[in-house]
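Inverse folding, one chain.
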């Protein structure tokens, strides 16, 4: 996609998000046919429309995550100087809130602690799922290589990690 097309697509994502919320699948379904009519037609003819939709949803999620909210963040840091280092340390400008089924910008999470609680719980659960999967991959690696056992970096049954929930 050319840069000008990317910018136009991103603008359209934000326009539709203002109407439908930050729900990437809904946004993708709403705009993909108009944004990429020839590509959608060809993908449909070749039986690849689902795969195309998956890629478009991924791009929509990226656009929603990378929204520039720096000015709004500055307003929140003025309200409480204690927020500034915490917000600055975050790796994303928005986080998925499961109950809202959308990405929510950090300033909005600060303004609505219930959404912040949902976002942090979702992120923690996904992190624990990733760590458990890494343990399974460690076990597979040992089985495949026949090498000595690998001490898992994390194990969901390890009492040292129980407080992380």
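Residues assigned per position:
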């Amino acid at each position: 996609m050319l840069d000008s097309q990317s910018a136009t697509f991103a603008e359209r994502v934000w326009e539709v998000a203002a109407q439908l919320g930050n729900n990437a699948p809904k946004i993708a379904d709403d705009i993909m046919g108009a944004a990429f009519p020839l590509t959608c037609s060809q993908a449909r003819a070749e039986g690849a429309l689902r795969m195309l939709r998956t890629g478009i949803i991924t791009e929509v999620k990226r656009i929603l995550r990378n929204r520039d909210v720096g000015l709004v963040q500055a307003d929140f840091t003025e309200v409480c100087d204690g927020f500034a280092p915490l917000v600055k340390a975050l790796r994303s400008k928005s986080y998925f809130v499961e109950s809202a089924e959308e990405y929510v910008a950090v300033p909005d999470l600060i303004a609505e602690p219930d959404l912040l609680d949902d976002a942090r719980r979702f992120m923690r659960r996904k992190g624990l799922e990733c760590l458990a999967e890494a343990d399974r991959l460690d076990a597979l690696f040992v089985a495949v290589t026949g090498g000595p056992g690998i001490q898992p970096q994390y194990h969901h049954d390890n009492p040292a990690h129980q407080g992380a929930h």
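The helical segments are 3-20, 24-35, 37-45, 49-65, 70-79, 83-89, 106-111, 113-145. The beta strands are 94-97, 102-105.
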